[in-house]
Structure to design on (158 residues):
């Protein structure tokens, strides 16, 4: 393996170059040296939220704090005691679309981009309650707008 010169850049400008095999080797070494828990991305949840509080009006207020990005993180919310409403759908082989309801019966659509890993788990655990962390976004389809939950992570209750 050849040595590459180091380039000094500010932290926010670091660019990863396409070094062949780097990602696979890095992931392998991390999985050997770190526990599963240590390898997990930490999410900073802003607040617990009941699904009955999720509305277009709430989303409009939230948008006033934008734009969201590196210096102004998108707010994340957590809801518990959720159940699957209907069956999950796998979109384009990599995204999952499903609906959840809470104890009040309120139902919301959820999209999980790039999370095909949870599709089978949702099918198997469709009767179990779970908690999830998500952000809110407006979804427009065929001229209709609704608030959609964008999944960041989830876990089934014991």
């Amino acid at each position: 393996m050849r040595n590459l010169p180091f380039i000094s850049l500010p932290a926010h400008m670091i660019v990863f170059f396409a070094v062949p095999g780097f990602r696979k080797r890095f992931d392998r070494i991390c999985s050997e040296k770190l526990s599963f828990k240590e390898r997990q991305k930490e999410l900073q949840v802003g607040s617990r939220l009941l699904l009955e509080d999720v509305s277009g009006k709430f989303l409009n207020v939230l948008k006033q704090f934008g734009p969201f990005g590196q210096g102004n993180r998108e707010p994340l919310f957590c809801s518990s005691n959720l159940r699957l409403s209907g069956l999950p759908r796998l979109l384009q082989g990599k995204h999952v679309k499903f609906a959840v309801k809470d104890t009040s019966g309120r139902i919301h659509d959820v999209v999980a981009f790039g999370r095909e890993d949870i599709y089978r788990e949702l099918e198997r655990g469709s009767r179990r309650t779970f908690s999830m962390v998500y952000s809110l976004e407006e979804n427009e389809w065929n001229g209709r707008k609704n608030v959609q939950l964008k999944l960041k992570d989830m876990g089934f209750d014991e």
Observations:
- Confidence is low (pLDDT under 50) at residues 1-15.
